[in-house]
Amino acid sequence: MKDILCYGDSNTYGFNPENNGRYDYDKRWTGIMQNILGNKYRVIEEGLNSRTTVLDDPYYDDIKNGKTYFPACIKSHYPLDLIIIMLGTNDLKEKFHVSPCDVAKGAAILTKMALDITAEKSLTNIPSKVLLVSPIHIGEGINTSQSGEEFGYMRSYELSRNLAKNYEIVAKELKVEFIDASLITKASEIDSLHLSEEGHKLLGEALAKRCIEILS
């Protein structure tokens, strides 16, 4: 069996913008991916609303900092054949005021952690495969969204469009796999941040295909 850890934010958790609840497991991209891959794979879902790459949110102690929990997460689920990292959208909130380049640096820290920790735990010193996913773009509707102020309105819309090129540089430097989720699907028109049910389906299908390519 191949074990795949999916480490992300609310779009991995499955936040439903229609009712502020959570999509059923088989509607989330992780569940869709599991159904496609079948029983020869085990998809481990580790999504948390408002999770950042490496930034401390002053209103949530340190629980939203992706770097803080990542080592324990990896070690508790190890051995792992593949780690999918899809974070960065929450780093674009106005209170953090960071650039796409700096968000990518956060993603690089997590990627390096995944490689180092899994190599250390491996009997052969070979790390798990890592797939770095640049998140979907923030939609233009953020200007009128309830989350607009928190994300700095159109500032985050513009910045999100510069994440992929920076993430791809990180992936090449660290020699890991890369995919741009914004080329697969887009944010719901409801809040311009979260995936719709159709968006989860498209992303789950695309990532399942990529997982097979990586792990075959």
TrEMBL record:
What InterPro entries is this protein classified in?
Answer: Ester_Hydrolysis_Enzymes, SGNH_hydro, SGNH_hydro_sf
Entries under Gene3D superfamilies matching the protein? SGNH hydrolase
Q: Name one Pfam family in it.
A: Lipase_GDSL_2
Q: Which domain of life is it from?
A: Bacteria
Domain SGNH hydrolase-type esterase: residue ranges: 6-202
User: Which keywords does this chain's UniProt record carry?
Assistant: Hydrolase
Q: Name one GO molecular function term.
A: hydrolase activity
Q: What is this protein called?
A: SGNH/GDSL hydrolase family protein
What organism is this sequence from? Clostridium weizhouense
